[in-house]
Design goal:
CATH class of the largest domain: Mainly Alpha
Organism: Rhodamnia argentea
Helix content: 55-70%
Radius of gyration: 26 Å
Family: Belongs to the ammonia transporter channel (TC 1.A.11.2) family.
Transmembrane segments: 33-55, 67-86, 143-162, 174-195, 207-225, 237-257, 269-288, 300-318, 324-344, 365-390, 410-435
InterPro entries: Ammonium/urea_transptr, Ammonium_transpt, Ammonium_transpt_CS, NH4_transpt_AmtB-like_dom
Pfam families: Ammonium_transp
Largest sheet: 2 strands, antiparallel
Length: 491
């Protein structure tokens, strides 16, 4: 008779307790995975995306400095965010537009279920219009997801002051602006502040991120002052192909930027990703066509700008509009910022005086405000119900209270503009009392080597001799005669 098979090894009690606590009943693994992937995609937009784009789109002598400004901002924001800024943006209310500062570091805080702000609107029977939303993932996922949004805002702002802002002043500016400007917009529109309860729509940061970075970038550029005269007259990209690689990371990363904001892997998330790509593609094509019509040549840099304005414009509306509206928004985002950049900027004396290096005002502030207003026009009622705490929210084209929504969007954007102009100005003036905002003239003349002691491209070493037979386009004698004996040049 065959011996009975031994019983399977029992699962240790300690392991059972660990797994049950590691995966509590409320945690949805799919939602949590998508949230972490989305956060990573947004992080990749900054490092390496904007690090590569900034390092490539500027003059060679500013490649290292521009890339480092982005890299430093990302790291500084991460530390400030978990230490005090997250709770100022999404914590308990201190003021109608600001949360109470505090750390988001404790284990008990981070492993619990994430909770979004609840509305204070009530039915006549005293019940809430919309109950508190509880995403099915831990608070740690929420903290990191919102952190990468805060970080990219500072990096976008940096695009306005590349090529002349004192790096020490920038290192001081980053935590201060995060604390006194970004957190206010985030709490007001997302964290349960007065604009959130009023029903202003900002699905994924058209106002909180893009309008604020564009306005603050222009304001900072005013206080820092312009680049050197030579740099303003001629500022060619040092590597157009690498710039396209950075732009590509920015575009593809936007799937996390807009797709992660329903806080669940649902239908709204899928629509947001599709609308994002529809609008970006349309905007890129429209900008390119306008360049061909008026300047006779399609510009690669122009195409990237059109791509960015499309991504920015759809951001406040991505999960709230239908695909046909995304196309219309793409047409407008490829033409309105093009007009302000190519026509209005050249004729408006104030904009001519302010040296906005990468045109962040046009690509982010104009496109972001435009997208916010168009959200108030095209937001579809059923999709609004999945996102907003205010019942019967709808865009203007759907009748009812839609006309009021457009007004709310205009007022909400105006608040972000006003706050950023004032606070950014105060911070720049305060920093200038301690650290000069602008680099000294010697550094402006030399660039990276003077500021960092490093250069982007070391094509020849010190004392190395250039020999056309070894380093020229042709290094053999098959098609060209060799250079005369001794024809070398010290580089």
């Amino acid at each position: 008779m065959a011996a009975a098979a031994p019983p399977p090894n029992p699962v240790p009690v300690a392991y059972q307790a660990f797994t049950s606590s590691a995966v509590p009943d409320w945690l949805n693994k799919g939602d949590n995975a998508w949230q972490m992937v989305s956060a990573t995609l947004v992080g990749l937009q900054s490092v390496p995306g904007l690090v590569i784009l900034y390092g490539s789109v500027v003059k060679k002598k500013w490649a290292v400095n521009s890339a480092f400004m982005a890299l430093y901002a990302f790291a500084a924001v991460v530390l400030c965010w978990v230490t005090w800024a997250y709770k100022m943006s999404f914590g308990d209310k201190l003021l109608p537009f600001w949360g109470k500062a505090g750390p988001a570091l404790g284990q008990k805080f981070l492993i619990k279920q994430a909770v979004l702000p609840e509305t204070t609107h009530y039915h006549k029977n005293g019940t809430l219009e919309t109950a508190t939303i509880a995403p099915f993932f831990p608070m740690a996922s929420m903290v990191w997801f919102q952190c990468v949004f805060a970080a990219i805002t500072l990096i976008l702002l940096a695009g306005s002051v590349l090529g002349r802002m004192n790096i020490k002043a920038w290192m001081t500016f980053v935590p201060l602006w995060l604390t006194f400007s970004y957190t206010v917009g985030a709490f007001s529109l997302w964290g349960g502040g007065f604009l959130f309860h009023w029903g202003v729509m900002d699905y994924s940061g058209g106002y909180v991120i893009h309008l604020s970075s564009g306005i603050a970038g222009l304001t900072t550029a005013y206080w820092v002052g312009p680049r050197s005269t030579k740099d303003r007259e001629r500022f060619p990209p040092n590597n157009v192909l690498l710039m396209l690689a950075g732009a590509g990371l920015l575009w593809m990363g936007w799937a996390g930027f807009n797709g992660g904001d329903p806080y669940t892997a649902n239908i709204d998330s899928s629509m947001a990703v599709l609308n994002t790509n529809i609008c970006a593609a349309t905007s890129l094509l429209v900008w390119t066509w306008l360049d061909v019509i008026f300047f006779k040549k399609p510009s690669v840099i122009g195409a990237v700008q059109g791509m960015i304005t499309g991504l920015v414009c759809i951001t406040p509306a991505a999960g709230l509009v239908q695909g046909w509206a995304a196309i219309i928004m793409g047409i407008l985002s490829g033409s309105v910022p093009w007009f302000t950049m190519m026509i209005v900027h050249k004729r408006w004396t104030l904009l001519q005086k302010i040296d906005d290096t990468l045109g962040v005002f046009h690509t982010h502030a104009v496109a972001g405000y435009l997208g916010g207003i168009l959200t108030g026009l095209f937001a579809e009622p059923e999709l609004c119900a999945l996102f907003l705490p205010v019942t019967n929210s709808r865009g203007g084209v759907y009748g009812g209270s839609g006309g009021v929504q457009v007004l709310k969007q205009i007022v909400g954007g105006a608040f972000i503009i006003g706050w950023n102009v004032v606070v950014t100005s105060v911070l720049c003036v305060a920093i200038s009392w301690v650290i000069p905002l602008r680099m000294p003239e010697e550094q402006l003349l030399i660039g990276d080597d003077a500021v960092h002691g490093e250069e982007a491209y070391a094509l020849w070493g010190d004392g190395e001799k250039y020999d056309s037979t070894q380093h020229g386009m042709f290094s053999d004698d098959t098609t060209h005669h060799k250079a005369p004996s001794g024809a070398t040049q010290v580089v």
